[in-house]
Amino acid sequence: MNDATRPPRLETRGTSIGYDGRLVCEDLSVAIPDGSFTAIIGPNGCGKSTLLRALARVLRPSLGKVLLDGTAIHTQPSKEVARRIGLLPQTSLAPDGIRVADLVARGRSPYQSLFHQWRASDEAAVRAALDVTRVGDLSGRLVDELSGGQRQRVWIAMLLAQETPIMLLDEPTSFLDIAHQYDLLELLRSFNDDGKTVVTVLHDLNQAARYASHLIVMHDGQVVCSGPPADIVTAELVESVFGLRALVVPDPVTTTPSVVPLDPRGGGRVGSLASPSIRKD
Questions:
Q1: What is the 3-state secondary structure (H, E, C) of 208-257?
Q2: Which DSSP symbol is given to 213?
Q3: Within a domain: residue 13?
Q4: Fewest beta carbons within 10 Å, which of 3, 104, 237, 281?
């Protein structure tokens, strides 16, 4: 779990990030609490995924630094970084005809070299990742044959087989139905409970507030605020960042902040979270 006394292993300092000649984030100084479950949230296009990709060493900042264990991440050898940080991108494409066990085994590539080929420790890591993510019975199946929820678990098994202390995931619940979304978040929380630092981009503010111990709220390429959900999720924040008038009340199950939109037609009524009201004539 998060220990506020430990210095962050992963952070940005005065970092400006962009791509294709366009600046997306400017002068970001963000620290990921070590041992935390951190969720990066904000409206579409605010720079959430850009920040995550910079933290993962996929994007090189035009200004400032991304630091891993106190050293600029881009000065460190790729394999050394890959032994400490694992990334699940927003879109992952498996090679045609690859089976589940073979895809998960690719998580061991940072540990392979000309002098160190496949070893018993690699086999054990893959087997453990398959078991923990509950896809061991699918190990012989083609990845292309799996459902969306099964495929996402396989990708996370590959990430877990990498055995990194820091896991970065970009919108891992996208395209999953509601039951699989919560199932996946429970799995990520179990990784955090086991001591891993988990950083994920999420769209659902209520899911982020329920599962994350630390939130980073972004808007227009800037960090608006960060901290524990109970400290920063307010009706004022939701309206200013997301443009949504809402009540923030305790979740009846977890007591974490829960956002309930107000009826956009006025009158102070609470609207439905699931769907707009249907008028019957």
A1: HHHHCCEEEEEECCEEEEEECHHHHCCHHHHHHHHCCCEEEEECCCCCCE
A2: S
A3: no
A4: 281
